Amino acid sequence: MAKRITPGQIRRTNRQQVFQYIYDEKKVSQQDIAYALQLSRPTVAAALTEMEEMGMILKSGYLDSDQIGRKAAAYSIDETFRVAVGVEIMRSRVKFVAADLYGRMLGREIWDFPYANEQVYFSQVSEKILAFIHKLSLPDEKILGIGIAIQGLVNADGSEVVYGTILDCTGLKIEVFTRHLPFPCTFVHDPDAAAISEIWCSPELKNAYYLSMSRHLGGSIIYNRRIVIGRDGRSTLFEHIVVRPEGKPCYCGKRGCLETICSMSALLGDEDPDVFFAALRTGGSAEKTRWTAYLMDVALMAESLYLLYDMDVILGGHLAAYLREEDLDFLRQAIRERCPFPVTGDFLLLSKMPSHNITMGAALYFLQKYLREVGT
Length: 376
Ligand SMILES: [Zn+2]
Known about the structure:
Elements: H1 7-25, E1 28-29, H2 30-37, H3 41-54, E2 57-64, E3 71-77, E4 83-89, E5 93-99, E6 105-112, H4 119-135, E7 143-150, E8 153-154, E9 161-163, H5 175-178, E10 185-189, H6 190-201, E11 208-213, E12 217-223, E13 226-227, H7 259-262, H8 264-268, H9 273-281, H10 285-308, E14 312-316, H11 325-338, E15 348-350, H12 357-373
Parallel strand pairs: 4-7, 7-10, 11-14, 14-15
Antiparallel strand pairs: 1-3, 2-3, 4-5, 5-6, 8-9, 11-12, 12-13
Helix pairs in contact: 1-3, 2-3, 6-12, 9-10, 10-11
The structure holds zinc ion.
Zinc ion binds next to loops.
């Protein structure tokens, strides 16, 4: 027997459409909504009343209407109706952000607190998250969830770190946080968090390799504005492709992985990047030699990815903030010289969100989910 659509489902669908339209247009009248969505005025009025009562939208001034001398009430999303929190766990510090429904940062904090795979660490980080939320005067019911970005591979539902050699946290379960926090929590592999940020702030982005070039190398494959997730719940581990079998040891146990030649630690070791780039940009010749050799290795990596599937390569991560247009031109030229096939356009791009991208991406994980499901 064919399933009937219930009046409740129709109401939810209408509400979802109206919410999405107001969200996209920012400030609209009832008439605009009815016209754009081809819904009757009473249907729109009912959806607006319902959402206003729920606190999802608010009246925000007036707009000119078709009728001369009359103004129509304008509706906007209450951008703090729901918020999400992003946490980034690093070896020596923890970062926190909170973001509203438009992905705007409401607050940010960095806490120097070395990682330890111990209960006391997780309870103290949880306390700090609660204090951060409290400081921003955000009531619990507004919090969509806590995205926890971590340097480790996570399983498909974000409940467990399945490979965490960098922090020695393999097998870590999300319960270490959820037992202290009254919110949904999920782990997010850190390059995936960065890729989520890139998608969020690049409306034109469709398909690309996103490379997270920080102390460690990582990346995600973006296809049709979504991160491609494979059989085991991960995107890509291209950083562990061996390019120099006799090369330096990698933390994964192999030798000569791309991680060992193209990560920032491969370039700098424990050197301060600010110091290195200041010397490079003021004509340091030793720095120039190292930088050129490094860029040639990055060209090798980008060309390999391009040969695998010819889509844009976005250079992101901590390194992106130091890259200049002249570096990109050098890389593009080096790739064209390496690649025996025609390479069209500027397929090598710089990240549009080089800072706070991992922490924000962890928060955006929950915002994206909410916006997809809103009103349902
Ligand atoms: Zn490796």
